[in-house]
Design a protein that fits this description.
Blueprint lengths: L60 E4 L4 H15 L3 E4 L32 H13 L3 E6 L3 E4 L13 E2 L4 E2 L28 H6 L5 E3 L5 H15 L5 E4 L7 H8 L12 E4 L19 E4 H11 L21 E3 L4 H6 L9 H12 L4 E8 L26 E2 L5 H13 L4 E6 L4 E6 L3 E6 L5 E6 L5 E4 L16 E4 L4 E6 L3 E6 L17 E8 L8 E6 L10 E2 L1 E4 L2 E9 L4 E6 L5 E2 L6 E3 L2 E6 L2 E4 L17 E6 L7 E6 L13 E2 L1 E4 L2 E6 L6 E9 L5 E3 L5 E4 L6 E2 L2 E2 L3
Parallel strand pairs: 1-2, 1-12, 2-3, 3-8, 8-9, 9-10, 10-11, 11-12, 22-30, 32-40, 32-41
Antiparallel strand pairs: 4-7, 5-6, 12-13, 14-15, 15-16, 16-21, 17-20, 18-19, 22-26, 23-24, 23-27, 25-26, 27-28, 27-29, 30-31, 32-36, 33-34, 33-37, 35-36, 37-38, 37-39
Length: 727
């Protein structure tokens, strides 16, 4: 039946040039035009909203394109978790058509059943992979093919999981689907069921994309089958989905499907990012799909190629003014499997430019970044390395068949750099007017990139505290605190004289130093933290899973905590030169307290955690709960109405208030609704700036309007705030 809501027909856009189409869809439909230059969009005091973050606190996605399940599990354990990747994107898990002969990569994008036995491995191996990644603190996002089944032009009736089907008859017995479950003519206005007008919402969303059988997603039955398939993965631990060919699914249909999904194992709604190639306006523009989640940012990848083949000094203004989607709706990338085959972006054949583009992506402050690791190919349809039956073999990063970009030292270490810089604005920009740039993220991290042909030597303003830092592009920090690569000394003015080789980069961040003094500017030497955790969850065991700032995470579920006093357990941690810990807690049986999907940010000394709130002090000094300050402290209270699934948070300019990072905002209690309350320990005399924000079940952040609020804790007595939410 026809959709109830139609978008206006968009203005005509140029058809793609011959050869600009992949086996599955358009590689690019971009209107011609110059780059729009403008002022750098400021990162306001409230920071920028982020997609749901993983248990280890990161948001960077490693896109392991067509790696088998055993290889993904191993990579999560040995690389992604330790390096701070927040999530891994995996290939479509559904059983797919199996062709005779070469087994092209796009077989997995032609599903024939919603069973989880595929050319990547068995259902048991898939579930074991999800568990292994979770144990490493890494979320799992699955590529979901839900717009279509196999191509009606395919004659094969074989699959990797043994499904019974006939593409030419629109018959898929294992789901089951029959001919009535697919779009015909009508609603597709074309007798051949193909898309003849790529600016027509009706044709794009109700006709066949390259002969792929287009599902009737208006049907409640079809919606139920699709959501059932997605929920089978959510229930197995999958945390989100890259929705393939999302442009070809009506937005109302997608919303109805997503509304049926279960909450994830770690809590909250699945993270959704949609494949929407640019081209066309109105209901076909990427912005029209934002209501259902984030959007894969193809324009970002195209523009990066333009600048790294031109003048990277232009990147000073890189952001929404360039035609990109808003940061909190952008899943950004340097390339992906379609784009590297179409050569519309930088690829593994681009040499140092490819590496530098990934470094920039991780250093810049726009969107949720991805790092793409695929396999080398000669012809665009080439299979990933596989056995004679088409089953993908284990990834071997030591050979030449795979491109393990996620392991590149500079790129992998920039993931930690990215995590440390979260919430910090771009500052201290420098460029030479051409192909060398440098900038900091607040006073936390600094990077320089040289895309030119000659080395650049100069004294840079880094914004960092005095100290000696390890260049994470070329070195790692050892267990003893030594740097395996070059070190850089920053003077008391935040300046450092550095040579950046041609086609290379230098990156520094707090928490990753070489010799003393430590990068934080505090005296060198060893410090420690004693972490106290409330036992009000009544777990059988309490484990602390942690990483010192800039360091490596413990093996999940962490180290055992011991009884400190009634109601509290504790663990002493040697910090070395680090300034604190990123941490979560675990009951040893898979249940995590990671602060609603975010790490706890813990400092040094005596640190307490109770009911999601981080404070200081030794609760066992009085054998009671953590001290609530009679003198020095702030009682936040704000009147704010919400709907089911929404909560109110406070965030501000001090570490105790999350330092303007929405992911570290403090949740207020709704016990006195519509007034939301929270006590935050703050020293007497502390002046603060703060604002309230609202988060919904999907993690979307809405900031109250107006300027930052200000207050000062009095010298005696506490600070009591009675605020009203500003719309």
């Amino acid at each position: 039946m026809p959709h109830l809501i139609r978008q206006p027909r968009p203005a005509p856009a140029p058809r793609p040039a011959s050869g600009a189409w992949s086996r599955r869809g358009p590689a690019c439909v971009l209107a011609a035009g110059a780059v729009i230059a403008g002022a750098l969009l400021p990162v306001a005091a409230q920071g920028s909203a982020r997609a749901a973050t993983a248990s280890n606190g990161g948001d960077v996605i490693a896109n392991l394109f067509e790696w088998n399940w055993n290889s993904v599990a191993s990579e999560c354990t040995t690389v992604l978790g330790p390096k701070g990747y927040g999530a891994v994107q995996v290939a479509p898990p559904a059983d797919s058509i199996k062709l005779s002969g070469a087994h092209p990569w796009w077989e997995v994008y032609q599903p024939v059943s919603y069973g989880l036995n595929s050319r990547m491995g068995t259902e048991a191996q898939f579930k074991a992979m999800v568990t292994a990644c979770h144990n490493a603190g890494v979320k799992v996002y699955a590529d979901a093919v839900i717009n279509h089944t196999a191509g009606v032009n395919q004659t094969s009736t074989s699959s990797y999981g043994g499904a019974s089907f006939s593409p030419t008859a629109y018959k898929y017995n294992d789901i089951p689907y029959g001919s009535a479950d697919f779009h015909g003519s009508p609603p597709c206005p074309n007798a051949n069921l193909g898309i003849n007008d790529w600016n027509s919402v009706t044709q794009v969303q109700e006709c066949q994309l390259l002969s792929l059988s287009d599902l009737n997603t208006e049907s409640d039955y079809v919606r139920g089958k699709i959501s059932g398939y997605l929920n089978s993965m959510v229930d197995a631990g999958v945390d989100g989905f890259r929705v393939d060919a999302a442009k070809h699914i009506a937005q109302a249909d997608m919303a109805a499907i997503l509304s049926r999904l279960h909450d994830t194992t770690w809590g909250g709604r699945p993270y959704i990012y949609q494949e929407v190639f640019p081209g066309g306006g109105g209901g076909l523009a990427p912005s029209a799909f934002e209501g259902n989640g984030s959007v894969l940012e193809f324009t970002y990848a195209y523009k990066l190629k333009d600048q790294f083949n031109g003048n990277i000094a232009n990147l000073k203004t890189f952001g929404q003014s360039w035609g990109l989607e808003p940061s909190d709706k952008s899943a950004v990338m340097v390339t992906n499997h379609d784009l590297e085959r179409d050569q519309t972006t930088l690829t593994y054949n681009s040499g140092s430019k490819y590496t530098l583009a990934h470094i920039f992506e991780l250093a810049w402050n726009h969107g949720t970044p991805q790092v793409y690791s695929g396999f080398r190919f000669t012809n665009r349809d080439d299979s990933p390395p596989a056995d004679s039956n088409g089953f993908v073999t284990d990834t071997d990063c030591s050979g030449t068949a795979w491109t393990c970009t996620d392991r590149d030292r500079g790129i992998a270490n920039m993931v930690g750099w990215h995590n440390a810089a979260k919430g910090q604005a771009v500052a201290n920009w420098w460029d030479n007017g051409s192909n060398a740039i440098a900038f900091s993220r607040g006073n936390t991290a600094w990077v320089a990139m040289n895309n030119g042909a000659d080395a650049v030597t100069r004294t840079f303003t880094t914004g960092l505290a005095t100290g000696t830092y390890c260049d994470v592009i070329h070195g790692d920090l050892t267990a003893t605190g030594a740097c395996t690569g070059n070190t850089v000394t920053v003077d008391g003015s935040g300046n450092a004289t550095i040579t950046v080789p041609a086609g290379d980069a230098v990156a520094l961040r707090t928490g990753v130093g070489g010799a003393t003094p430590t990068p934080s500017g505090t005296p060198g030497g060893t410090s420690s933290a004693t972490v106290f955790y409330s036992t009000d969850k009544n777990w059988a065991a309490y484990n602390l899973h942690y990483a010192p700032t800039g360091g490596t995470w413990t093996t999940a579920p962490g180290v055992a905590m011991t009884t400190a006093c009634t109601g509290w357990v504790k663990k002493n941690v040697d910090l070395g030169g680090a300034t604190g810990l990123a941490a979560t807690f675990n009951n040893g049986s898979g249940t995590w307290d990671n602060n609603g999907g975010r790490n706890y940010a813990l400092g040094s000394g005596n640190v307490t955690v109770k009911d999601g709130v981080v404070a200081s002090g030794d609760p066992c000094a009085t054998a009671t709960a953590p001290p609530t300050p009679a003198a020095g402290g702030a009682d936040f209270a704000v009147s704010a109405t919400t709907v089911v699934g929404q909560n109110i948070y406070v965030v501000g300019d001090k570490a105790a208030l999350g330092q303007w990072d929405p992911s570290r905002a403090l949740p207020l209690s709704s016990a006195a609704y519509p007034v939301w309350k929270l006590n935050v320990p703050l020293a007497a005399g502390t002046s603060i700036e703060y604002k309230y924000l609202r988060k919904d079940a999907s993690g979307t952040v809405t900031w109250e309007s107006g300027t930052n609020r200000t207050a000062t804790v009095p010298a005696s007595g506490g600070l009591t705030l009675n605020d009203t939410w500003r719309n």
